[in-house]
Specification:
The structure is a single chain. 54% of the residues lie in helices and 7% in strands. By secondary structure, it is mostly helical. The protein has two domains: 98 residues, no CATH class; 88 residues, Arc Repressor Mutant, subunit A (Orthogonal Bundle), CATH 1.10.10. The strands form three sheets. Strands 1-3 form a two-stranded parallel ribbon. α1 runs antiparallel to α2. It is extended and about 75 Å long. InterPro entries: P-loop_NTPase.
Length: 218
């Protein structure tokens, strides 16, 4: 509530571990808890403001009062929870479409206007083309320098520098088109052009019953 015009999209995962009725009940319970939490925080905020305004010497608490009033004016929009089956690629794509739909909603984000340089779109389109049309392995792993060399062969990207490509990759990583663990030394030169492959691998390795499975093996 401290960030003006915040928008939160709750996401429930592991739907495949629940019955349909359970999913509906859990969704309703989560949204009810969120609503109650927001109401409680709003009530507490109003209570604090009233206490300051009703104090014997309110002038000593002007700074606190102003901060609380700023928080009171902050809006928080909670969207309907999206339940996702992490083992279903269709569900993941549906979540992606839902997020994009909300992001493009000017009523939710009236102040967000972002214009990317044309080269960002050109590199994005080229990477998608490389991942889909060229003989790229299923895991989609590609060396950063090799990716740069492939992109530079395209006429409109011949002058693409490594530094600019890195900036663009950071953006593409943020929007989920690629995965680049720049901060991990052993992976800083590796770009994952197929993020869904990583998701699939993580799902196979990390599950809610992983401990039980390991115990059964031992």
């Amino acid at each position: 509530m401290r960030v003006p015009n915040s928008v939160v999209l709750p996401v429930g995962t592991h739907v495949d571990c629940c019955q349909e009725q359970e999913v509906a009940e859990k969704t309703q319970d989560i949204m009810a808890r969120v609503t109650a939490m927001l109401a409680e925080r709003r009530s507490n905020l109003t209570h604090f403001i009233d206490n300051l305004e009703g104090s014997e010497e309110p002038k000593f608490y002007v700074d606190q009062w102003e901060k609380l009033k700023e928080m009171e004016n902050c809006t928080l929009t909670i969207l309907n929870l999206v339940a996702v089956n992490c083992t279903d690629h269709h569900d993941i794509k549906k979540l992606e479409a839902t997020i994009l739909k909300y992001v493009k909603n000017e009523e939710l984000f009236p102040e967000v206007v972002r214009v990317l340089p044309p080269v960002y779109r050109q590199v994005e389109a080229a990477i998608v083309d490389i991942a889909q049309r060229e003989q790229t392995a299923d895991h989609g792993m590609m060396d950063l320098q090799y990716l740069l060399s492939k992109l530079s062969r395209r006429e409109h990207l011949a002058s693409l520098s490594r530094e600019l490509l890195q900036d663009i990759l950071r953006y593409l990583h943020c929007i989920g088109l690629v995965v680049w663990y720049e901060e991990i030394k052993h992976l800083e030169s590796t770009i994952f052009l197929q993020p869904t492959f990583l998701i699939t691998m993580f799902k196979l390795l990390v599950r809610h019953h992983l401990v039980q499975q390991l115990e059964s093996i031992s």
